[in-house]
């Protein structure tokens, strides 16, 4: 099936007002999700899956500002050595950050999301919640291929702001004024012949710090059955640069 796609010319630059920045250009020291072009974050990502641990670095950067459908958007790129890079089309709206499309390096055009996908609801307030689709990161089949369960299996995750103004320390340093956002989902799997189908909890905890953005992420997919194994992901900020 051919995916519908759209393209934005790289040379189309516009002086837009970043909604989170109170209409001031450049970096905003109060934003929990900076989108200023030139911003760059490097993370250490430790994955425990299938009984083995691995560590790699992931880099996220804001490439530029563009315009699509008469409205501004920001191109945010994620890169991991040895994997395909992905560009995300993000918009800063009064009610939060939303994703409207994505493009992998092997694709000529970006594929529009069926509907805008909330990345972070704003303004942040304890108890605020939203839903967005996700896939399992570390759940593996033991005796079937493809072993990764994430292919073709999506599930809705409910995110809730559980705390504001927390402090935490990661390799990039110590940070204050951080929001803790917890995502919870359930994945239905045939775990074994005795128990049959069961709901497996999936949890993501994210910390967003003012003026920096995402500083830490923990993903838990605990599962050990005759047919499946689970694991965890720990993502911590190593260094960052703001324009």
From TrEMBL:
PROSITE patterns: PROKAR_LIPOPROTEIN. This is Lipoprotein. It comes from Noviherbaspirillum suwonense.
């Amino acid at each position: 099936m051919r995916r519908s796609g759209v393209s934005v010319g790289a040379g189309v630059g516009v002086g837009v007002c970043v909604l989170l920045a109170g209409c001031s250009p450049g970096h905003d020291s109060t934003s929990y999700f900076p989108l200023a072009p030139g911003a760059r974050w490097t993370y250490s990502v430790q994955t425990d899956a299938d009984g083995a641990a691995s560590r790699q670095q992931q880099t996220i950067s804001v490439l530029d500002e563009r315009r699509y459908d008469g409205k501004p958007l920001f191109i945010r790129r994620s890169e991991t050595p040895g994997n395909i890079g992905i560009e995300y089309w993000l918009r800063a709206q009064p009610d939060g950050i939303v994703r409207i499309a994505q493009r992998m390096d092997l694709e000529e055009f970006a594929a529009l999301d069926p509907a805008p996908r909330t990345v972070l609801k704003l303004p942040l307030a304890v108890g605020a919640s939203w839903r967005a689709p996700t896939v399992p990161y570390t759940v593996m089949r033991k005796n079937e291929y493809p072993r990764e369960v994430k292919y073709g299996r999506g599930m809705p995750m409910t995110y809730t702001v559980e705390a504001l103004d927390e402090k935490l320390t990661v390799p990039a340093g110590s940070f204050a004024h951080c929001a803790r956002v917890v995502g919870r989902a359930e994945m239905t799997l045939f775990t074994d012949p005795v128990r049959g189908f069961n709901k497996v909890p999936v949890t993501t905890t994210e910390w967003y710090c003012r003026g920096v953005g995402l500083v830490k992420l923990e993903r838990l997919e605990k599962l050990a059955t005759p047919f499946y194994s689970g694991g965890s992901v720990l993502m911590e900020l190593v260094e960052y640069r703001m324009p």
